[in-house]
Design goal:
single chain; about 160 residues; alpha+beta; 5 strands; about 35% helix; about 10% strand; elongated
Length: about 160
Amino acid sequence: MKKLNKKGFTLIELLAVIVILAIIVVVTVPTIITTIEDARVNSIWNLAGSIANSYDTMVAQDLLASTSALGEGNYAKADWQCIGDINSGGLAEKLDLSSKDVVLTGTAPTGNIEGNTTDATCSAIRLKSNGGAEVLLIATSTEGKFSISGKKVWAVSSQETGHKQ
């Protein structure tokens, strides 16, 4: 009689491995998705701070030099203004902001932005009482670098974190 060669795995062993892999996926995927969302929120918050600093630097350069770093008509005011509305989008271009990633036109916020809610529908800028810029960036709802499906993502340069609602 010929002896059978028992190489390979049984069906039970294969099913056990598949079940273990499925459990790992179920546990890790939500964590990975949350981590990606948090990274996008932090990115837009960091960008808002960088835009505020860049704007302040360009204003300082304009005050010290005979040429204009910002260009004519690209200055913010004390009240919130949509970035895309200042000088027909000239400021957005100077700050290298794209409508693919942030909402440039819409309704500017009114007053101070407190907590984690805003009525604004556009990315905006204003001058604070100390003369520095404060920037609100609102991510596009789809396909942008900062978008999170089904959530509004935004950040204010003067706050300690970005937000998703």
